[in-house]
Write a structure and sequence with these properties.
196 residues; alpha/beta; Rossmann fold; 6-stranded parallel sheet; 9 helices; 17% strand; globular
Amino acid sequence: MARIGFYGGCFNPPTKAHIELAKKAQKECNLDKVIFVPVGDLYQKVSMAKAIDRYNMLQIVCSEENKLQVSDIEIKSNKNYKAIDIFKILNDEHKEDENFFIMGTDNLKNIKSWKQSEELIHNFNYIILDRGLTEANSVIENDELLKNNRKRFTVIRNDKFNNCSSTDIRTKIKNGEKPENLDNKIYEYILENNIY
């Protein structure tokens, strides 16, 4: 039985923070691997690069890390999955494994507004990436449902990348600047393919 972390998100583009936090989660939680799960093209968000480009950018950095992988499960589907749907699919595909879903504190704060939130909180295990902007433990302790399911949440703290955002990186690229929190190979891919 493997221990797998599934890290969902836009990754628009994938930053050094995404990669370093995935590696930190893998190490601290003794995961056999972390699998990035980028959202597909049906996900509604402004300034979103095509799913295939976000997938390719993740592949660039994961190809150099033997415990990081990328899933195209959302990209190859023509569905706009909700978290509960994709979690169930991934759990079914990896039913012999111990699975964890990796998210930031911002998503933890919003999880109760998600489809079938009580089932999400009761039935799945999470690794929460706390970048110091909002205290994940405080969010859990101040909500009765989250607090009652405290054993479902493992919090990892990392202040190093608390100012790293994909939005800022896209802005710098549009302004002709080279962002510091972006892998060089991803930056080259973005320029070559005229993304953003």
